[in-house]
Amino acid sequence: MTTPRARLTVLAGPTAVGKGTVSADLRARYPQVWLSVSATTRPPRPGEVDGLHYHFVTPEEFDRMVADGELLEWAVVHGRNRYGTPRRPVEERLAAGEPALLEIDLQGARQVRTTMPEAQFVFLAPPSMDELVRRLVGRGTEDAEERARRLATAEVEMAAEPEFDHVVVNDDVRRATDELVALMGLPAAVD
């Protein structure tokens, strides 16, 4: 008997909307969902672990991965660092019939739409722009210049909402996760 090919779910949205928080909640409650680990050229933030949060690579290694076709998608984010999704692990999980989630930026989602149009695209939206600003400032992980750059990017990203199959408003992490789970067709978690 052949395992049916699973459908990839792509979660994208503006910076500081809570993509990582929703993804972490989903993985904690639904460990059977495989979450892709992106490669990035940016340095780790405090507490981030290589291979768990991201694959932290040099710009030269990233260039090699692009040249060798090892990335499903990649983009320069906030005009500074590059992020990309290693292709092979995604294809292996889908071929095995495992639920898979990509948590990526808008540019990456657009590339995946081209390379895997059968995927499901979910836009994670903030309840308001004021709340998005509050979350970004509250993180305390970026200086004022980087926050300004990310907010400018976020305004552009918000305009892309109509490009997605579904919109989930992250007004409450658990509720947003439950909505994402339903879109993925997973059974409800027993608490």
List the helices and strands and how they pair.
Layout: E1 8-12, H1 19-29, E2 34-35, E3 39-40, E4 55-56, H2 59-67, E5 71-77, E6 81-86, H3 87-95, E7 100-103, H4 106-115, E8 120-125, H5 129-139, H6 144-158, E9 166-169, H7 173-184
Parallel strand pairs: 1-7, 1-8, 2-7, 3-4, 8-9
Antiparallel strand pairs: 3-6, 5-6
Helix pairs in contact: 1-7
Report the C-alpha radius of gyration, rounded: 16 Å
- Percent range of helical residues: 40-55%
**Beta-strand content estimate:** 15-25%
Structural class: alpha/beta
Biggest sheet features: 5 strands, parallel
Which shape, going by the Cα principal axes? globular
Kindly state the mean pLDDT as a whole number? 89
Order of helices and strands: EHEEEHEEHEHEHHEH
Uncertain regions spanning at least 5 consecutive residues: none
Give the tally of β-strands: 9
Write a brief structural summary.
The chain has 191 residues and is of the alpha/beta class. Helices cover 40% and strands 20% of the residues. It is built from seven helices and nine strands, in the order βαβββαββαβαβααβα.
Structure notes:
- Helices cover 40% and strands 20% of the residues.
- With 191 residues, it is an alpha/beta fold.
- The mean pLDDT is 89.
Descriptors:
single chain, alpha/beta, 5-stranded parallel sheet, 4-stranded mixed sheet, 7 helices, 9 strands
